[in-house]
């Protein structure tokens, strides 16, 4: 597990594109996006440049200027989509020296090496110590207490702060309510409590102020973990084919702006696309989806009018909307950097390997202690 890629916070963490190659040796640029817009007829032609047992090719060579492929967020506001010929990867591609060079060029602390093909996901899980699967009630409820207390303090800050300190109060509040998402996330993974009903109730309540329907999110999140980095089936930050990017002006404009000035809030688009359409769920999931949607709409139709009644429309903006945008800044940040590293491929279902995808299919982010 030590070979998991580790992302250095504060360094070049703005890598946001995935590279694939065809058997003909010509690299195709695929830009991450949220929707399943891939052409299934073409997915079989795609092979990873970083998968065991295949002829390997790489898009990013050390001597090529990095800005030709990925623009750091501090230097530019848009992402370029390009297609370039690539040279075959050197025979030392699996060496520690090569991985070190690749990780330095991307701004990572470490790049994980490919797994042997005979390693199964079951083998990885069985290698973990049993304590990682144990429920810690004290830690779970302490996280609830910390988040609720932080949120209460932040609302007092907003109420008392002069106008010039409001951005600081909003940033604090957005960070505090991100804790509610973390709690709901742990409930969805069955790591919060031994009681499933308690997890469902806590997860639903934690997600309600965020206007996140808990069950729809849980179903899609489970699918994301089951199909990590699988073309079409994964639900997190899908790639978009370069051909579609070039041929669809509306899509192109959405990506240029979405991965440019609106990048810190791209998770809002994902939230809207995946969690409110009942048709996206299986028949046996629909009942729970509707219950979650009812809870979220209840918060909107009861909570929002109460805020407006007490503090007016400006109060709703101050006490809910601005903190909510702060939460989505974090949501966009930690989901995007986890799922869009350029060396990690998306693969078709025929080529996809569960162990490889789950272990090396995302990056580990080291955030500062204060956060």
Automatic annotation (TrEMBL):
Family membership: Belongs to the fatty acid desaturase type 1 family.
Ranges annotated as spanning the membrane: 164-184, 289-307, 313-330
Record flagged with keyword Lipid metabolism: yes
Organism of this sequence: Cucurbita moschata (Winter crookneck squash)
GO cellular component, one term: membrane
Domain of life: Eukaryota
Record's keyword terms, sorted: Lipid metabolism, Membrane, Oxidoreductase, Transmembrane, Transmembrane helix
Keyword Lipid metabolism in record: yes
Pfam families (UniProt xref): FA_desaturase
Stored InterPro entries: FA_desaturase_dom, Fatty_acid_desaturase
GO process terms (BP): lipid metabolic process
Cellular location(s): Membrane
Domain Fatty acid desaturase: residue ranges: 162-370
GO molecular function ontology, one term from the record: oxidoreductase activity
Protein's name according to its UniProt entry: Omega-6 fatty acid desaturase, chloroplastic-like isoform X3
């Amino acid at each position: 597990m030590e070979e998991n890629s580790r992302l250095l916070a504060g360094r070049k963490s703005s890598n946001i594109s995935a590279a694939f190659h065809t058997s003909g040796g010509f690299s195709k640029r695929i830009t991450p996006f949220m929707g399943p817009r891939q052409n299934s007829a073409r997915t079989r032609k795609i092979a990873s440049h970083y998968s065991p047992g295949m002829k390997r090719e790489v898009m990013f060579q050390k001597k090529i200027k990095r800005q030709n492929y990925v623009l750091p967020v501090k230097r530019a506001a848009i992402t370029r989509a390009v297609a370039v010929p690539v040279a075959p990867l050197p025979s030392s591609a699996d060496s520690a020296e090569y991985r070190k060079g690749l990780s330095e060029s991307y701004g990572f602390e470490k790049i994980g090496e490919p797994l042997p093909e005979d390693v199964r996901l079951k083998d990885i899980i069985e290698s973990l110590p049993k304590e990682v699967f144990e429920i810690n009630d004290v830690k779970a409820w302490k996280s609830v207490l910390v988040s609720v207390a932080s949120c209460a303090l932040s609302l007092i800050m907003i109420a008392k702060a002069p106008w010039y300190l409001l951005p600081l109060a909003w940033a604090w509040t957005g960070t505090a309510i991100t804790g509610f998402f973390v709690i709901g996330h742990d409930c969805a993974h069955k790591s919060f409590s031994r009681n499933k009903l308690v997890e469902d109730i806590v997860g639903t309540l934690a997600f309600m102020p965020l206007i996140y329907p808990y069950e729809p999110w849980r179903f899609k999140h489970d699918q994301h973990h089951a199909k990590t980095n699988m073309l079409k089936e994964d639900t997190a930050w899908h790639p978009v084919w370069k051909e579609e990017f070039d041929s669809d002006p509306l899509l192109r404009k959405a990506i240029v702006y979405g991965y440019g000035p609106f990048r810190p809030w791209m998770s809002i688009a994902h939230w809207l696309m995946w969690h409110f359409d009942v048709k996206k769920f299986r028949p046996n999931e629909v009942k729970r989806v509707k219950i979650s949607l009812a809870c979220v709409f209840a918060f909107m139709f009861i909570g929002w009018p109460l805020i407006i009644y007490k503090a007016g429309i400006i109060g709703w903006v101050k006490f809910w909307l601005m903190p909510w945008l702060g939460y989505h800044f974090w949501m966009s940040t930690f989901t995007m950097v986890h799922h869009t590293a350029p060396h990690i491929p998306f693969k078709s279902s025929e080529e996809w390997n569960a162990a490889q995808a789950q272990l090396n299919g995302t990056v580990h982010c080291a955030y500062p202690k204060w956060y």
